[in-house]
Amino acid sequence: MSFLKRRVVLNVRPHRCHGVRTLGALVAFSALSCVAVAAPLDALLSTQPAHVGAPDSSVELELGYDVANDRVDFLHLRPDGASTSSGDYYGRTLRAAWDLTPRLRLEGGLAKRRLVFKSFDADVTTWQVAAQYLVLGADPKPYESLRQPQLALRASAWGDSASGFDRELNYKVGGTTFRSLHADKPGDTQLQFDVIGGWPVTANLHLNGIAGIGYSRVTLDSVSGQAVRSNGDLCDVLLTRAELRAVCVKKNGGRTTLIEPSGDNEFGVDINKEARYHALTYQAGINATWRSGDWLFRGGLLHMTHRRSDVEDAVKTRGGSPVRSNQVLVLEAGYKPTAKSLVFLRGQMMTHQFAGELPMTYNSVSAEQFDKRYGFLTLGLALAF
Fold first, then answer.
1. Which residues, other chains included, contact 277 with Cβ-Cβ below 8 Å and sequence gap of 6+?
2. Using CA atoms, how far apart are residues 127 and 150, in angstroms rounded to an integer?
């Protein structure tokens, strides 16, 4: 069905890879215009070691704190008319990367996020694992000596889960108006494959092009809520995979119970199509890294397009417009107080909130909420060992 509202975040890590033999290959990757269920921070995927990048280290840990509230929202990216807390987001992330060999990097990450909105709030857990292999080009370390293009292949799996989403709303389906909804155990799982082309322009400047494709599966156990029918009956509704069960108090007195198939019921909703669905995804992006002494600057732009199953038909049937793309801009500045540590400040801006990065929040009811921009800041520390 559709009742998971909006946003979430997380972060992933850049990587390293190996050279493409021709610059033309890199340009081809950058030019692909695509779609995607994008993993966190895909805009910064790289063929070079990220952040600390110490040549004599094989392990990096990164701690990050994400925040979006009225004190840091100087670009006014939070929802219009947001109260002091409405539109806030807070997240804590831990990521690790291990260079198993000079060409093979393994990564993992875990994030705990808190979303607070006017009619919706939730606690979300996000996980991610990935492996990246440098197919062509010289070994990434030391990156200062590289001048030839590189090519890397990356495979990843990631997902999100929550114990439940509660939402207050006034959503009409046919002759029924839903006032509140609760989604029990929503979640999503993604499998993704990316190709990354890297070009070390100088010892300080590195460019990357990214192209990827992914598969997404969105699930939940059940949906419950309160609805008012056109005849004035007030109903407590439970939708499961197999059936709809509604206990209604009649306007003129009395009580009645309805039990109907989930996909063909009087309330006009089918959670198996509107909140449980599959998606194919594609993405393309470019980014750049500039190192100057103890300073590091990174910036990346990612374009995504989404192709979902039946949920999009439900949105259009009710007069809505599906959100099928998103653009993400990531900018970061970091400073190395020591040779094996880096403190950084990162900003992330999205044209359609977290569309693609948190698939479980998108469904037929929440789709209209994704036609808005959003952004947040991350303060973090990276350590090399």
1. 217, 218, 308, 309, 310, 311, 363
2. 28
Identify which of 201, 203, 103 has the alpha carbon closest to the alpha carbon of residue 151.
Answer: 103
Per-residue pLDDT of 12-69, as tens digits, reads 333 333 333 333 333 232 322 233 346 789 999 999 876 887 878 899 999 999 998 7
Token representation of residue 299 = 């910036």
* C-alpha radius of gyration, the chain, whole number: 23
In this prediction the pTM is 0.82
CA distance 294 to 285: 27
Distance (Å, whole) CA 165 – CA 149: 46
Q: Which of 151, 203, 135, 143 is nearest to 24 (CA)?
A: 151
E-state strands within the chain:
18-19, 59-68, 88-99, 104-117, 120-136, 150-161, 164-173, 176-184, 187-200, 205-219, 222-229, 234-239, 243-249, 255-261, 277-292, 295-308, 325-338, 341-350, 374-384
